[in-house]
């Protein structure tokens, strides 16, 4: 095994252990009622996971998003991807005023004098605000909360004041697209969880005297789900790997659009396999399906990214279409 | 768990890609109406030109006429040919399937006899698996090969045999022993010369207006015993391995590609939002499928077992090939109705029912994937 693979496996194994022990259904229910999981956050920081992807940690952006995928797989209810991105952005700009260490950070969208859709804005030590198509990011220390809100998965999405004199940070790689990469990886993780739940349920649930996994209709439905999950993981990895290339925006576009389609298919089918049980609040299935549904729409839905990619290809024209697709990377 | 490694093509492939594109530019006369479907377009002369460039049997040992190139290099050549819509049907099966089968299971004499001819584009092969009463249930084949001294006597009928009326050889799955409780036992693969007198080839017109596939009837065809590929009785293991070769190649998601090219042409430089979205949606699927397909090529290069992953790429890719013309149809501007777009669309739509049938139906593939998931 190469060193890269070893690091990857170590991150996955450790994350799985922590989240299996500390990120259970009761914790998710409490988080959706607005209670921040401080003990889990402490576990994450103690293991250094809040520093992944920073140069000083010696880990790569691939390592960082490997962890983000695991956070999606366990529905970890905190803005961990945002925190990791903020660490990278501030570190690379080396602005003393923006230096970070060990805090919980969140990123939202500029909307006039407000920053909206801030994950856990009520709890964040610092909030950054991005705008579609802009490399300028506002940095807001000690954010002042205007409104508490949630997305359809019950994840806090608050509004905070965007002061006119907020410091501006220049982020070299399209920040909005980087946030899309975060959502792509979270989705890839949640889709894996949905497949695992579907397989487990199909093997355990008996009807007509046998496990429903033995019925061809169920087998084929889960085969379709497995295909979409594999697509999502490969697409998520590709978006991460394109981070420092000229194609980044278009790779993100392809990936976010395709994974969004996968969410639609996987969530529908896995719910169908679970029958009425998966429709109850008591079952944990909805923690994953609702998140995947919500993330599909955050930082550009399928139509947004399809249009962006399609407009670019139309400009290139029919003769340069294939050369664009047939990249070596 | 299903694994698709992060694999990229290596730098060496870029030079080769440029060479293939230049070659295609010089040989456009061979495909005035481009079609990315691998079984449309049988052009022996074009295949011989490819052979002369060393682009058939590229990854095979030089001792048998191969180029000892990597799986990635072969990948680049095949995807460039398909994307351009070049006629590749003549050598396709020999290159993808029959050659690798002979390399893996064939005798030294068989390799020396057939492989160099294949690489020169002079020996074209057909697949002899399906029969009138045998489709997905391949073990139910009834064509028999009975040993008589140094020969086998073959009787039976194969069907859906693409290009049997133009190709030179067919590798048939036959019963060399009577059926027993183990339905997979007693099957063998044997090479038959399609030009033999007692081999009767009857073209079958398809719904797209083509006459590419056939019914092939064998009546007391005598074949030397040394034409059996591998051990007699080992046929089942061999065909299942053969079917997983390159199940995940670019031909599994590029069949409709020319429709996409014409859609982009028809929409022009400044598309309406719904047109741009359709173009972007198609591209998002192709880009992702291509990465998965290249992942499998990389895992094959590293001798990993990729049976389930390959089936999965084929299943996803074939469904997408069918979806592409549907997305394009609804997005194309009205002006495209009388143009090249319409031609490409109609040609592909009429072929599309075959996409999820050939090389293993959707239902068979989903079964393979479900087994990989531990469900059966």
Commentary on this structure:
The complex is a heterodimer of chains A (329) and B (376). With 329 residues, chain A is α+β, with helices and mostly antiparallel strands. Chain A has helices at 3-22, 25-32, 38-46, 61-73, 80-93, 175-204, 216-241, 248-274, 285-297, 302-316, 321-325, and strands spanning 105-111, 114-119, 126-130, 136-141, 145-147, 157-161, 167-170, 206-207, 210-211. Chain A folds into 2 domains: 3-170, no CATH class; 175-325, Butyryl-CoA Dehydrogenase, subunit A, domain 3. In chain A, the strands form 2 sheets. In chain A, strands 5-6-2-1-3-4-7 form a 7-stranded mixed beta sheet, covered by helices on one side. Chain A is globular, with a radius of gyration of 20 Å. Chain B is α+β, with helices and mostly antiparallel strands and 376 residues long. Chain B folds into 3 domains: 12-123, Acyl-CoA dehydrogenase/oxidase, N-terminal domain (Butyryl-Coa Dehydrogenase, subunit A, domain 1, Orthogonal Bundle), CATH 1.10.540.10; 127-234, Butyryl-CoA Dehydrogenase, subunit A, domain 2; 246-372, Butyryl-CoA Dehydrogenase, subunit A, domain 3 (Up-down Bundle). In chain B, 44% of the residues lie in helices and 14% in strands. Chain B has helices at residues 12-26, 44-52, 71-84, 89-105, 108-119, 235-244, 257-267, 273-301, 307-331, 340-351, 362-372; strands spanning 125-128, 144-148, 151-159, 169-175, 187-193, 199-204, 213-224, 228-229. Chain B has a 4-stranded mixed beta sheet, with helices on one face. The relative contact order of chain B is 0.12. At the A-B interface, helix 6, helix 7, helix 8, helix 10 and helix 11 of A face helix 1, helix 3, helix 7, helix 8 and helix 9 of B.
For the record, the count of structural domains of chain B works out to: 3
Which overall shape of chain A is indicated by the principal axes computed on the Cα atoms?
A: globular
Q: Main sheet of chain B, how many strands, which sense, barrel?
A: 4 strands, mixed
Order of helices and strands of chain A: HHHHHEEEEEEEHEEHHHHH
- Show the largest interface: A-B, 50 and 59 residues
């Amino acid at each position: 095994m190469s060193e890269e693979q070893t690091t990857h496996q170590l991150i996955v194994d450790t994350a799985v252990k922590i989240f299996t022990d500390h990120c259970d259904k009761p914790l998710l229910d409490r988080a959706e009622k607005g209670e921040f999981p401080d003990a889990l956050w402490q576990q994450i920081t103690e293991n250094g996971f809040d520093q992944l992807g920073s140069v000083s940690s010696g880990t790569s952006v691939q390592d960082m998003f490997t962890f983000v995928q695991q956070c999606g797989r366990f529905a970890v209810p905190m803005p961990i991807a945002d925190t990791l991105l903020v660490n990278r952005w501030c570190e690379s700009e080396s602005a003393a005023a923006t230096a970070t260490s060990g805090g919980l950070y969140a990123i939202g969208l500029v909307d006039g004098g407000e920053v909206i859709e801030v994950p856990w804005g009520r709890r964040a030590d610092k909030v950054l605000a991005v705008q579609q198509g802009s490399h300028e990011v506002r940095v807001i220390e000690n954010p002042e909360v205007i409104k508490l809100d949630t997305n359809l998965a019950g994840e806090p999405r608050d509004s905070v004041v965007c002061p006119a004199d907020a410091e501006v940070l220049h982020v070299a790689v399209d920040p909005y697209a980087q946030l899309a990469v975060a959502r792509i990886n979270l989705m890839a993780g949640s889709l894996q969880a949905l497949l695992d739940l579907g397989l487990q349920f199909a093997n355990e649930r008996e009807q007509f005297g046998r496990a429903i996994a033995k019925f061809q209709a169920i087998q084929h439905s889960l085969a379709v789900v497995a295909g979409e999950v594999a697509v999502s993981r490969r697409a998520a990895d590709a978006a991460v790997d394109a981070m420092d290339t000229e194609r980044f925006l278009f790779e993100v576009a392809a990936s976010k659009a395709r994974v969004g389609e996968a969410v639609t298919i996987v969530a529908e089918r896995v719910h169908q396999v679970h029958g009425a049980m998966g429709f109850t609040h008591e079952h944990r299935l909805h923690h994953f399906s609702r998140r995947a549904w919500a993330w599909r729409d955050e930082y550009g839905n399928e139509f947004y990214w399809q249009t962006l990619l399609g407009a670019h290809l139309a400009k290139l024209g029919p003769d340069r279409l294939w050369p664009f697709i047939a990249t070596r990377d | 768990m299903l694994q698709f490694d992060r694999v990229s093509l290596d730098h060496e492939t870029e030079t080769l890609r440029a060479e293939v594109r230049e070659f295609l530019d010089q040989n456009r006369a061979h495909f005035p109406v481009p079609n990315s479907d691998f079984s449309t377009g049988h052009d022996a002369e074009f295949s011989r030109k490819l052979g002369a460039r060393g682009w058939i049997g590229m990854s095979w040992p030089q001792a048998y006429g191969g180029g000892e190139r990597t799986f990635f290099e072969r990948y680049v050549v095949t995807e460039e040919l398909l994307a351009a819509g070049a006629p590749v049907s003549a050598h396709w099966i020999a290159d993808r399937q029959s050659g690798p089968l002979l390399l893996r299971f064939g005798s030294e004499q068989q390799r020396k006899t057939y492989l160099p001819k294949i690489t020169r584009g002079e020996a074209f092969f057909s697949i002899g698996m399906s029969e009138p009463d045998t489709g997905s249930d391949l073990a139910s084949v009834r064509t028999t090969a009975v040993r008589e001294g140094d020969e086998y006597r073959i009787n039976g009928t194969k069907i859906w045999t693409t290009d049997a009326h133009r190709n030179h050889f067919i590798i048939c799955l036959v019963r060399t022993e009577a059926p027993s409780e183990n339905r997979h036992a007693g099957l063998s693969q044997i090479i038959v010369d399609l030009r033999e007198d007692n081999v009767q080839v009857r073209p079958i017109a398809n719904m797209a207006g083509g006459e590419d596939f056939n019914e092939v009837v064998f009546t007391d065809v005598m074949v030397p015993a040394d034409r059996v590929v591998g051990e007699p009785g080992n046929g089942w293991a061999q065909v299942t391995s053969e079917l997983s070769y390159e199940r995940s190649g670019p031909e599994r998601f590029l069949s409709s590609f020319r429709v996409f090219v014409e859609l982009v042409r028809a929409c022009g430089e400044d598309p309406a939002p719904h047109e741009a979205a359709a173009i972007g949606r198609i591209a998002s699927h192709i880009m992702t499928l291509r990465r998965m397909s290249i992942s499998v090529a990389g895992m094959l290069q590293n001798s990993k077992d990729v049976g389930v992953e390959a089936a999965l790429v084929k299943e996803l890719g074939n469904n997408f090939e069918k979806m592409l013309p549907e997305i394009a149809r609804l997005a194309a501007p009205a002006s495209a109705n009388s143009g090249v777009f319409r031609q490409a669309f109609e040609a592909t739509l009429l072929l599309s029912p075959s996409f999820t049938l050939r090389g293993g139906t959707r239902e068979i593939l989903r079964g393979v994937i479900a087994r990989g998931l531990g469900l059966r």
